[in-house]
Design a protein that fits this description.
14% strand; 5-stranded mixed sheet; Aspartate Aminotransferase, domain 1; 7-stranded mixed sheet; 14 helices; alpha/beta; 2 domains; Aspartate Aminotransferase, domain 2
Length: 401
């Protein structure tokens, strides 16, 4: 493609955006972006310091809230998600907590899916409750439940889709219409899909949050989070919270994540290829009474919604082996997959949500969220598919004996 092909009206593709958005070059003319590890920045005069602090002149001040390495990552993930602006945080949970504490106040009401990450539920039931913010959790895929939960005090709808770890889904266009009717903020955790597979902002969401620790990095190296949306929501509301409370992403982690985004589109394609074959294999291999959860399977209850809302079906596959003992035996017999609470790596990972990521929730809360004792979450990596299937096969065989 020649330079002449890029007109002002031309919108680059996602892979091109992942490689070029947010690029900067200093006077040293580096091809790969520089890493700014400093804590503060200097001014040419007292007058310039006054102007930048006042906001009448753009410029970096202090790495708690302005840093070129962090800004580059923010610009790249914003462009990939189709948002006007992004702000980075130290972790995915700090991104979620920042959104809650920025837009909710004492006396407000939050409607949230039951099928969210365990720490998100804990934040709602402890920290938000401490500040007088009430939360109602509803079935993710039940539009009537969302509608009936809304009260005059409701200010926000919050969800993950597909859900962690059940892979249940919500119709984002429908929830966006509901949010519009009641003048509510719709916030979507897009960690399982990334902008490569789903773009909630284009479906009517106001904000997208990410644990950049997962697929955006993709190699289990660093922690990070991101919040993406309109310039007014981010600059006027979220930025003052981050500036003053300091849930800051380190410049080094931002640089790693910035580079990680460059390979995200190609990584996701390979992982989706593998996950589709894993889901089909497990569906054929598991005995009656054990189930495979994957939106790409035709028997998934929301397969049609997934096909409409997502570009592909993702790289998370879950199996319900019926009991805690069966789940642990299967996990312990895996040889290629790594037992860890993370997901989104280039390597295949496995975890048992009921005793790890959702282990602090009560048994009743786990049951309501669909996190059974037999549920196993597989984050499918980029290994040769024959090796992944062989590992699953031998683990199923050995754990059954």
């Amino acid at each position: 493609m020649s330079h002449s092909d890029f007109s002002p009206e031309r919108k680059p593709g996602l892979a091109t955006t992942a490689l070029h958005a947010g690029r900067r070059m200093t006077e040293e003319r580096e091809n790969s972006p520089a890493l700014f590890l400093n804590s503060s920045f200097v001014f040419t005069s007292a007058a310039q310091a006054q102007a930048i602090f006042a906001g009448s002149e753009e410029g970096n001040i202090y790495s708690r809230f302005t840093n070129p390495s962090v800004t580059a990552f923010e610009e790249r993930i914003a462009a990939m998600e189709g948002g006007e602006k992004a702000l980075a945080t130290a972790s995915g949970m700090s991104a979620i907590t920042t959104v809650f504490l920025t837009f909710l106040a004492s006396g407000d009401h939050l409607v949230m899916s039951r099928s969210v990450f365990g720490s998100t539920t804990t934040i709602a039931n402890t920290l938000l409750a401490k500040f007088g913010i009430q939360t109602t959790q509803v079935a993710l895929s039940d539009p009537d439940a969302w509608r009936q939960a809304i009260t005059p005090a409701t200010r926000m709808l919050y969800l993950e889709t597909p859900a962690n770890p059940t892979l249940e889904m919500a119709d984002l266009s429908l929830l966006a219409q509901l949010a519009k009717e009641h003048q509510l903020l719709l916030v979507v955790d897009n960690v399982f899909c990334t902008p490569c597979l789903q773009r909630p902002l284009s479906l009517g969401a106001h904000l997208v949050v990410h644990s950049a620790t997962k697929y955006l990095d993709g190699q289990g190296r660093v922690l990070g989070g991101a919040i993406i949306g309109s310039r007014s929501l981010l600059q006027d509301h979220v930025y003052p919270f981050i500036r003053n409370t300091g849930p800051s992403l380190s410049p080094f982690n931002a640089w790693v994540l910035f580079k990680g985004l460059e390979t995200l589109p190609v990584r996701i394609e390979k992982q989706c290829d593998n996950a589709e074959q894993v889901a089909q294999f497990l569906q054929q291999r598991l005995p009656s009474g054990q189930a495979v959860h994957y939106p790409g399977l035709p028997n998934h209850p929301q397969h049609a919604l997934a096909a409409r809302q997502m570009r592909r079906f993702g790289a998370i596959v879950c199996v319900d082996l019926g009991s805690l003992a069966a789940a642990h035996r299967f996990i312990d017999h895996l040889q290629l997959a790594t037992i860890t609470a993370n997901l989104g790596d280039v390597r295949t990972l496995v975890t048992h949500p009921a005793t790890t990521t959702h282990g602090r929730l009560s048994a009743e809360m786990r049951a309501a969220a669909g996190v059974t004792d037999g549920l196993v979450r597989l984050s499918i990596g980029m290994e040769d598919i024959a090796d992944i299937l062989a590992d699953l096969d031998q683990a199923l065989l050995r754990s059954a004996s």
